[in-house]
Write a structure and sequence with these properties.
With 244 residues, the chain is mainly alpha-helical. It contains nine helices and four strands, in the order βααβαβαααααβα.
Length: 244
């Protein structure tokens, strides 16, 4: 006011963060910091903690942190569902096609409608500061893609020598993984960048410009270039932390 600057019209704030459902206080000795979580679980990147807090503490409501819940959630969402989906799909592309995307693999994608619909839902959540709700939509999209893989069993198609159909399933999945890398970027920038690297996908694209035509024909990746985008959080480290 003294500087004659306009006052904020809207202030965004989250609620209290509790620890194991208890108020955080120095007297209880239960105060944690982001750096202490990274040290406890020996994490090189803050992505997992960013993701957990962004999806577990909705704006305007209280959130809770516990080592066990952190471990369970990031392992389930980032390692088991998203990371494993990308890793095994790229591994099958290398195993069956030497990492090459053939023109006949680029077909109508049955996942496109769901994926592009999710983009708009996530964007709307972001516009309304509903960060945790947006994260849930991304997880649901990953689950849909995982179900698509289980339903279409590309390994069975390869065994039956239905190679074009196998390739189409794999590329359909990888196209959506490009979209997922863009959606997950605000939560996990380092994971998203590694996903995009393995997919040869440009992460600078705007959400409004996302399509289901991201994978180029030709050599995509070799076996040595496939890396886990997120390693599981060690259960033993969580157990040790809870006993301190």
């Amino acid at each position: 006011m003294a500087l004659d600057l306009p006052l904020p019209k809207q202030i965004l704030a989250h609620g209290w963060i509790t620890i194991d459902e208890s108020k955080m206080s120095k007297s209880l000795g239960n105060v944690i910091s982001p750096t202490s979580v990274l040290e406890t679980f020996e994490l090189e990147s803050p992505d997992a903690f960013r993701y957990y807090m962004a999806t577990s503490a909705p704006c305007g409501r209280d959130g809770n942190y516990s080592d066990d819940d952190f471990k369970e959630k990031v392992n389930a969402h980032l390692a088991n569902s998203m990371g494993n989906l990308l890793n095994r799909t790229l591994s099958m592309l290398v195993k069956y096609f030497d990492g090459e995307v053939k023109p006949e693999f680029k077909d109508e994608n049955p996942l496109a409608k769901k994926a592009l619909g999710t983009v708009q839902i996530v964007k709307n959540h972001f516009d309304n500061f509903e960060i945790s709700e947006a994260g849930l939509e991304i997880v649901q999209l990953v689950d849909t893609v995982n179900k698509y893989v289980q339903d279409n069993t590309p390994w069975t198609l390869a065994k039956e020598e239905k190679m074009t159909e196998c390739g189409q399933v794999l590329i359909n999945v990888l196209e959506i993984m490009c979209i997922i890398s863009a959606l997950i970027y605000p939560y996990c920038p380092n994971i998203a960048k590694e996903m995009a690297r393995q997919l040869s996908f440009d992460l600078s694209i705007k959400l409004d410009d996302l399509t289901c035509d991201n994978i180029k024909t030709g050599k995509l990746i070799s076996k040595d270039e496939i890396k886990p985008v997120f390693l599981r959080v060690d259960s033993e480290l969580a157990d040790k932390s809870s006993k301190k």
